[in-house]
Amino acid sequence: MTIVDMHTHFLPKQWPDLAKKFGSQDWPWMRHTEPGKAMIMVGDKEFRPVYEALWDPSVRLEEMDRDGVDIQIMCATPVLFNYERPAHQAAECAEIFNDLALEICSHNPNRLKALAQVPLQDIDAACIEVSRAKKSGHLGVQIGNHVGNKDMDDEGLVTFLQHCASEDIPVLVHPWDMLGRDRMNKYMLQWLVAMPAETQLGVLSLILSGAFERISKDLKLCFAHGGGSFAFQLGRVDNAWKHRDIVRQDCPNIPSSYTDRFYVDSAVFSNESLDLLTKVMGDDRVMMGSDSPFPLGEQSVGKLVREHDTLSEISKRRILGENSLTFFGIE
Predict the structure, then answer these.
(1) Residue pLDDT, tens place only, 87-129
(2) Cα–Cα dist 255/192, whole Å
(3) Is 141 helix (H, G, I), strand (E, B) or coil?
């Protein structure tokens, strides 16, 4: 059985000085504090402490061996998206980080794989870069769940998803730039409350708007973090669709009927949550993803699935690897 961790993050050890390059402030950069440790900076503000597994492929591979992971798929830390920047700057950054991601993977391309990033604020540029990245060796693309006030049902974002479907490019949707920031500035509440809500918002914006009716069923789409709060709240959404016409006005079918249109990862951290998730989505729509190497990620990668006391061995095989191999077209 091939074990695949399809949701991990990377940062290059170093990259060009973007503030100097573009002549503007508050770009992300890395301040290395001691051997193997660093602080992600945004301008002069500290964003997150990190360690060498983010940029050192030898450490990454050691941790994979420790956890029994055969293949790891990495994507950019969302602070690198730069959707708020001028499109030409974000496009140049996407190309820089996409190429640096492949450099990391080159140390063991059979085990290390990457998803690209794109300048999603410019759909034409995003389509060009995702096609280039796929040809250069990326398995797919990671995008944020919104661009400013444009959610997943925005016509531009739908066009991008259609482009990915037409070129067989898998898409991972990751929450970022979370809502309610002024009310959630302590205790990592943005990550604990707003991030799951952002993910559910992304899913429901596609379902309730009727966007899924306009997107090819060939699209390979996955939402991070178990789909956020979607599975737990799906009964509430179905109930609203049945009893309120303003909920179903653009959605021709009951929301729970759309769970065959997307996948989710397994980063939910409890047996009960994973049990619910597989019942809602089906064991063929859940892929093992750890969100490593961050503190909010699974610290013993794959343990939740391997040691789950009610999942069948068939379900475990699917979640631990088979679903990801199919989704990403890995031979």
Answers:
(1) 999 999 999 999 999 999 999 999 999 999 999 999 999 999 9
(2) 25
(3) strand
Question: Is residue 293 reached through a cis peptide bond, with omega within 30 degrees of 0 on the bond before it?
Answer: yes
DSSP secondary structure letters along 42-56: ETTEEEEEEEGGGT-
Tell me: the pLDDT tens digits for 154-185?
Answer: 999 999 999 999 999 999 999 998 888 889 98
The domain locations on the chain are: 58-328
Q: Which fold has domain 58-328?
A: TIM Barrel (3.20.20)
Backbone φ and ψ of 146, nearest 5°: -160, 160
Q: Edge-to-edge strands of the sheet including 4-10?
A: 4-10, 71-76, 112-116, 140-144, 171-174, 221-223, 263-265, 286-287
The answer to whether the pTM exceeds 0.85 is yes
Q: 3-class DSSP state for residue 18? A: helix
Task: Give the side-chain half-sphere CA count within 13 A for 40.
Answer: 19
